[in-house]
What we know:
- By secondary structure, this protein is of the alpha/beta class.
- It has a single domain, classed as 3-Layer(aba) Sandwich (Carbamate kinase).
- 36% of the residues lie in helices and 25% in strands.
- The longest helix has 21 residues.
- It is globular and about 55 Å long.
- The model has no long low-confidence stretch (mean pLDDT 89).
Amino acid sequence: xxxxxxxxxxxxxxxxxxxxxxxxxxxxxxxxxxxxxxxxxxxxxxxxxxxxxxxxxxxxxxxxxxxxxxxxxxxxxxxxxxxxxxxxxxxxxxxxxxxxxxxxxxxxxxxxxxxxxxxxxxxxxxxxxxxxxxxxxxxxxxxxxxxxxxxxxxxxxxxxxxxxxxxxxxxxxxxxxxxxxxxxxxxxxxxxxxxxxxxxxxxxxxxxxxxxxxxxxxxxxxxxxxxxxxxxxxxxxxxxxxxxxxxxxxxxxxxxxxxxxxxxxxxxxxxxxxxxxxxxxxxxxxxxxxxxxxxxxxxxxxx
Length: 303
């Protein structure tokens, strides 16, 4: 099989399972599981890995608040890019030949200051709460909270990613057979001030949307979003739910998906396929090798 360029986006819930305590040991073990799943596809492919960071950003924000400090979300994003990138490098490095180089790239991603998402927080971060706990925290801290699966979480604005500032070094590294870990957590949210200088933004960019931009810009042949479910389901939450194995952007547009979970993945897959004419896939972290082979997950193909 010809060498391909693949972007794999690891979901935050794939790296830290829902309801699981956010300890370093748990995160390390989940990264180890991810590394085992990814290692088989590294041999004959150029590989870019991105990852979620919602649980980790929320935890760091709580830790800062407990000490009486406020750390901006862009700074927390940079911290988690380093932490998770380090773990991925180490655990994947234990499985891949020593000669194959790795690099974790702190990645700034541009957002527009006037994006309407600033007025409509939707991105879940931090730990899971009961409804009562979330209501109390919302009152005490001024948070916006929303239901997320079986619990409630804090939600923050999630503007659309416009471009990735570090594309030139990312491409250079890929041309030299480096496994690149970048755009973690959707990247570090960055915007231009009126005077043309750069500043961080108090938001969290959706990792899948940013990864779709990344996949397009690096010329990926395949864009994979790994999560904690086998793929995209039609009629989810009803007795008629069914896994979509092969689908198209048009079919996906006719269906409805939750805005805080599967919705952004479906939107990212549609955008990548329509803009490039190549394939995207959504599926379980443990089945990445089979997803890359087209044997598992939901494969989104051009019309």
